[in-house]
Design goal:
It contains 14 helices and 2 strands, in the order αααααααββααααααα. It has helices at 2-23, 25-44, 50-75, 83-98, 103-131, 135-153, 163-167, 180-197, 200-210, 212-217, 222-248, 258-268, 281-299, 305-331, and strands at residues 172-173, 175-179.
């Protein structure tokens, strides 16, 4: 009996591992690609080491959190083209409020900025739900509104950041090869996203993105759920704005490339643009992959403008591959 029970237990364990690999195969593939790119960087540039890894962690921090913000909205079947503008607005508000203030006051500022992010997302979501105008149109229009407010708050880069906030984004933790920014990002995202993803709200996000009509018939409040996805996206955008201030030490009113690059990271990270499929870990890894593609091309003395071309080619390939997979699933 014990032998039979042991074999059954091993069988269940093997099935469980295969299920994990099947569900997270894309993420594991991205991790493998990232490892290859890091190894290639070390081969091409032998001096690429500890300091470069720490700098990589700090530089990708804002964009990685922006990718999480975009992923939440896309999973719910929408898209938010105002992510970069919300990051800019929250960044300049934080930097202006923290400038020449005691470090303790920075905690109050962070709480206020997170509340601001929730409010910005709530406005976006309310407009999408009430007007019935496509998400892409509403959020594109709101990107100009939030960008304008950012320039009103601070017409040029400036301000400051509390020392403890900057310490969270710079330097190693435990060992020299582990950037503090990466650990902080993973902890923050896990603390916010995992409870949401495992709650009824998170399940509603996926249901709404998969099939809005079926979700409605199953009792999911479609309008409220879509609104909530933009609220959560706004919270992560505020976290991205704080990360931007922490990594640079100032507030930046110009939105930068965060919106479009967040969409690129979402695509490469395995989140379906149709909604209902994917997670937030893949897009975070995809951000690092895209950055390493640019870094490797720089080490090879290739025109950095071609890095943008390379990223576009990669994304086209990913979209085509994903479409082929969808066609195969539909034909079964």
């Amino acid at each position: 009996m014990s032998t039979t029970a042991t074999l059954a237990s091993r069988g269940r364990s093997l099935v469980g591992r295969r299920d994990v690999l099947r569900r997270n195969g894309w993420t594991f593939g991205l991790l493998g690609l990232l490892a290859v790119l890091l190894l290639f960087a070390k081969i091409v540039e032998p001096s690429y080491g500890v300091l470069a890894i720490q700098g990589l962690g700090t530089s990708v921090l804002p964009l990685a959190i922006a990718a999480v913000a975009q992923a939440v909205v896309v999973i719910s079947g929408g898209i938010d083209l105002s992510i970069g503008s919300m990051m800019a607005l929250t960044s300049v508000v934080a930097a202006s409020a923290m400038y020449k203030q005691p470090d303790e006051f920075g905690i109050v500022v962070v709480i206020g900025v997170l509340a601001l992010g929730l409010a910005l997302g709530a406005v976006n979501g309310a407009l999408v739900v009430t007007t019935k105008v496509p998400d892409i149109v509403v959020t594109l229009a709101m990107s100009f509104v939030w960008a304008g407010f950012a320039l009103i708050v601070r017409p040029a880069p400036g301000g400051g950041a509390s020392s403890w906030l900057m310490d969270l984004a710079v330097g190693p933790i435990l060992v020299d090869w582990i950037p503090k920014a990466t650990v902080v990002m993973l902890i923050v995202v896990a603390v916010v996203w995992i409870p949401i993803a495992r709650s009824r709200l998170g399940l509603s996000f996926y249901a709404l993105g998969s099939n809005a009509l079926a979700a409605f018939r199953s009792g999911v409040p479609v309008g409220r759920t879509k609104w909530a996805s933009y609220v959560v996206g706004g919270l992560f955008a505020a976290l991205g704005g704080l990360a931007l201030t922490a990594s640079t030490g100032i507030g930046t009113p110009v939105p930068g490339p965060y919106t479009l690059e967040s969409v690129a990271a979402v695509v490469l990270g395995g989140v379906s643009l149709a909604g209902g499929r994917g997670g937030v870990l893949g897009p975070m890894i995809a951000v690092v992959v895209l950055q390493m593609v640019r870094t490797d091309m720089t080490f090879m003395s290739i025109d950095t403008n071609l890095a943008i071309v390379a990223q576009g080619v990669i994304l086209i390939g990913v979209v085509m591959f994903g479409s082929l997979l969808e066609i195969r699933r539909a034909s079964r």
